[in-house]
Amino acid sequence: MSRFVPFALSAFLCVHSFAAVPVAAFLDQHCVECHDADVKKGGLDLTALTFDRVDAPSLKPWQHVFERVRDGEMPPKKKPQPEKAEKDLFLAALKEPLLEADLADIAANGRVRSRRLTRVEYEHTLHDLLGIDIPLKSMLPEDRASHGFETVADGQQLSHHQLASYLDVADLALSDAFHRAVSGDKDYQKHHTPKQMAVHRGGNNRMPEHRGSRTISWPITLQFFGRLPATTVPVDGWYRMTLRQVQAVNPGRDGAVWGTLRSGACGSSAPMLYMIGLVEATVAPRDLTYEAWIQGGHMLEMRPNDATQRKAPTGGKGGNVSFVGRDLEKDGYQGIAFTGIDIERIHPNAGRAAVKSRLFDDVDMEKASPAELDVLITRFAARAFRRPATDEQTAPYRQIAAKNRTEGASASEALRAAYRAILCSPRFLTFIEAPGPLDDHAIASRLSYALWCSMPDTDLIQLANQKKLHEPAVLAQQVERLLSHEKARRFIASFTDQWLKLKEIDFTTPDTRLFRDFDPVVQESMLQETRIYFTELLRGDLSITHLVDSDFAFLNGRLARHYAGSNQPKATQAKSKKAKAPPASVSDQPMISALKPGEGFQKVSLKPDAKRGGLVTQGAILKVTADGTSTSPVVRGVFINERILGNHIPPPPPGIPAIEPDIRGATSIRDQLDKHRNNESCASCHQTIDPPGFALENYDPVGIWRAGYGKDGRGVKVDPTGTTPDGETFTDLATWQQIYTKRPAHLARGFATHFLTYATGAPPRFSDEAALDDIAKKTTNLRSIIREVVLSDIFQTK
Amino acid sequence: MSTFTFQKHLSRRAMLRGAGITLGLPLLEAMTPALAAVRETKQAKRFVGVSLALGLYNPNLVPEGSGRSYKASRYLADIQDLREDFTVVSGSSHPGVTGGHTAEGSIFSACPNARGSTTRNTISLDQLMAKHLGHETRFPSLILNTNSQTSPSYTENGSMIPAENSAMRLFTRLFVNDTPAEQERQAELIRQGRSVMDVVGAEAKSLQRELGAGDRDKLDAWFTSVRELEQRLAANEAWTHKPKPKVALKPPTQIPRDNETAVERIFLDIVHMALMTDSTRFITLHVTGNSVQGIEGVDESYHTLSHHGMDEDKLAQLARVEQAAINEWAAFLRKLKNDQLLDETMVLLTSNLGNASNHDNKNMPVLFAGGGFKHGQHLAFDQKDNYPLPNLYLSALQRLGLEEERFATSETTMRGLEVA
């Protein structure tokens, strides 16, 4: 029996059988004046909506109506407001059928519809399954984010193009694994001396200087300067590279010279350079070791890469450099010296024996019987499908092997054909979850993909086999184990890439004329800062308020210097051309405690007037929320609301043009926005969107603090004041932070929402609200929130 | 000692990846040059859609006056030699499409989107054409992007087709023959792939019994994908041993990294050859790169310039970039015209953005050439109350002889666009 039948407003206003009379009355009184077919404000026509409890999509708009009224956003402030009792009655009457319908839909269909592995998960899974380490994800189509995350099933697509790439990538991965297992790994080990590296092999000379027993690279901006043709590696692979006795020449104020180690073809037909790592050269010489995937035929390129360094002339003709007849060290230029490079091929994931055992167990492939192949295929299928595989399920794969055998293929070839098919199966590529509570194996998969981006390990599978994993104590223990495991780094990278949009750090290039101090070292440091900070919150189970503010930060010398360089008229900063930078440690910067040169990222305490603290003042966040030239309080406001504060911001209604930015005159973006906000229908959202954006206006697109707009902050003064949607005023970011650090439950709920969305593959539903409230009541510490989400029924139900 | 052959596999495989290229059933006449194959017909045969990710600045594009007597706008002044070969359309857009950059997916599908929601896209114009008419060529369609994998080409089930973004790889796929041994290896892989698809299809079917009704949509996507891939593999197998056409075009060796419009030219040169050799008849090229500092007088990135904020210096630089993009498109038209291909080839230049500076999707830039239509005119529609652009797409479909009555939100065929 359905009390709500599909209805139009005109119908339900007079239909007495409609139990929710308060709903109809309230809508009539407060809503339809604007939201009817004629006015259709914000594109919403309530009279055209239906309410069909068995049709989930028809309920979506009603859930929004519920939320907007509940949160006091509607009716708009300027309109007559409903009495509290009237509003409560309306909400209760609307909530009950919405909740019931939502729960019924989840029971029948689940929250999540057939989620597929993302390409990041696919790569990690094949690495864990086969023991290989070759990059695979770039060969699959990019995943598109929905509700902020690529894991969300709703946004995932499948086409024959996608399937075709699964066929190809499976072949590639298996080809590598079988080759290693059958033929073994080839060693590669080389030491390059400075003398060997100085041999000119043709083309323009853009190699570093060879001086005595050392190689020295200088701040020369010529493209590919610093390339080392001798270091060209023969084949694609992972390599460990050790730069010997790295030493700073003319170190700067932070006691170091900053540079980058990159790889690439270093020729104009293939100009792309791949970051391997930062080089922090110190006065005391030391070995620096890096590990990276390098393409065959690519070489290393190392050079000082700090935009604040004085640039050295090339000294050569045309596109060549020359060091003949000059002494750059004496001339005061910063440089990075080293005494050679060791390069060694490595297999960071697993050695040959492990690869072999994952493919063949201990079966001798020369003599493998059909029965032995069957056993291997069954075993592989169970691992790939992340649950025991029935005879019926493995039969087609065993048949593929048998057929290949009869057609003359070797046992190993036949096995490989069967494995290839298994890797294209929907049982491998998607999560098999039946409606209702998840079985233990489905829980194992969800948990493992949530915290490791990959398949469950044997411990998890064993617990699932014993049907113990759904026990809260066991599950909580596993959360701890997984988070403490090295593989949790994959979660940190993948989650922050999406949640905080770190993968978009490259999306815009800061205008070099406006932001002269930005360079590749700063950008890479920004990424690392945010990842390390998040790792610390996770490790220490720190309060969620650290998203908004903190009294510590993780900085390296370069980033500390970047943050300290406020974008102000630089009267005193014009350095004399010849003088060496005065030696001084970073500790004399007013904002932070002392940093030691050479130690990379270090935890520092922030002084109260540091103008830094929390995620929100980190360069990576400030950069991904700006374009290359300017900031927008709207863009930042939406980001902070959605990602940090956990407030959902509805999309702008159709037909409303965005602000036409005008960077000519003296008007600030704020003045332009004020006009927009004065429009009542815009104001209802912008009163929520803009305030955090205003508070962050003091930070420019590359994360430097500024008092005014324009070049060197000489333009209009920044106005960082504002009022939160619930009426608290703030004068700048610090006071804004004070407001929100007092709201840990609110922040915790927001974070739980993001993690839940990421981990289950679906955003919270209407009926999940209560459970999320519960989680935020239980804990407001980051690691504990993750645990509580996993322990919730939502996580353990399809 | 065994030799280590992994690297060879990697580059080899990278070349063979399916991105951007679909394979069709071979027919004998498809192997003959395009000119011979199409001589007798009066319909259009081909469609090339070029889309710009960052729009065109309307005040420089839209001419004064309408109809045949329009006065060339600043951008069109450079290409007046082609005046009779194209139509410029203003005041039109896709109804219900909003969301600024995110409307990219609707450029050729015209699918109304609700920004931020997960409404599913619908089939794009080029794919609908290829679905009906793409089976005669080696590649039913080509989906290209100058820079990234993003494409405005969508399959019937609303899935984006990843674009080919390497001009070198594209050239190889179109025109460079594999060695006989490699051809044999490919054929074997394809045969295996077909038996894998048999199993995958059966697996999806058995999952239907295990999963809930809510997963049915997703499983349908599996069925469709398996079926379509089987067809592609079958076609692919037949093509494997047929020689690719030889062309008088050198493979690209160097892709400029500071001039997006030069990259556009390199792609269009290959597209020209692909049409000449009848390797395919339906192509989209999405121009998305951000580097334009190699163009004289330009020293900022494309995206930055598109957010000009009415700044005069930025507008001046933007005009140089956009003029170059239009001129490359025009140069492509001239080549088709020289080869007498233009009358049978519809060529569109458009963008999801009518105003990139404020991310507006109304008033899309539209230049439409060839295909045997009467051109040389400015179809000026209402800038405030836009004319539905899907009407043009319906005209294009019908011009190919397809008896479609509707495409996306089309109402009728394009008003004012007549067959010559």
Q: Quick gist of this model?
A:
The complex is a heterodimer of chains A (798) and B (420). By secondary structure, chain A is of the alpha+beta class.
Q: Explain this structure to me?
A:
The complex is a heterodimer of chains A (798) and B (420). Chain A is α+β, with helices and mostly antiparallel strands. Among the domains of chain A are: 9-109, no CATH class; 189-346, Jelly Rolls; 499-568 and 587-741, no CATH class. Chain A has 26 helices and 15 strands. In chain A, the strands form four sheets. In chain A, strands 1, 2, 3, 5, 8, 10 and 11 form a seven-stranded antiparallel beta sheet that branches. A four-stranded antiparallel beta sheet of chain A has the order 4-9-6-7, with helices on one face. In chain A, strands 12-13 form a two-stranded antiparallel ribbon. In chain A, helix 9 (370-385) packs across helix 10, helix 16 crosses helix 17 (520-540) and helix 21 packs antiparallel against helix 22. Chain A is flat and about 90 Å long. The two termini of chain A are 26 Å apart. The model of chain A is unreliable at 1-19 and 568-587 (pLDDT under 50). Chain B is of the alpha/beta class. Chain B folds into two domains: 6-177 and 247-399, Alkaline Phosphatase, subunit A; 181-242. Helices cover 37% and strands 10% of the residues of chain B. Chain B contains twelve helices and nine strands. Chain B has helices spanning 6-16, 34-38, 58-61, 74-77, 125-133, 167-175, 180-210, 216-240, 260-276, 302-306, 312-338, 390-399; strands at residues 46-52, 86-90, 92-93, 142-145, 282-287, 345-351, 366-370, 377-380, 387-388. Chain B has a seven-stranded mixed beta sheet, sandwiched between helices. In chain B, strands 3-9 form a two-stranded parallel ribbon. In chain B, helix 6 packs parallel to helix 9, helix 7 runs antiparallel to helix 8 and helix 9 (260-276) runs parallel beside helix 11. The radius of gyration of chain B is 22 Å and the shape is globular. The model of chain B is unreliable at 1-19 and 22-40 (pLDDT under 50). The interface between A and B is large, with 80 and 81 residues.
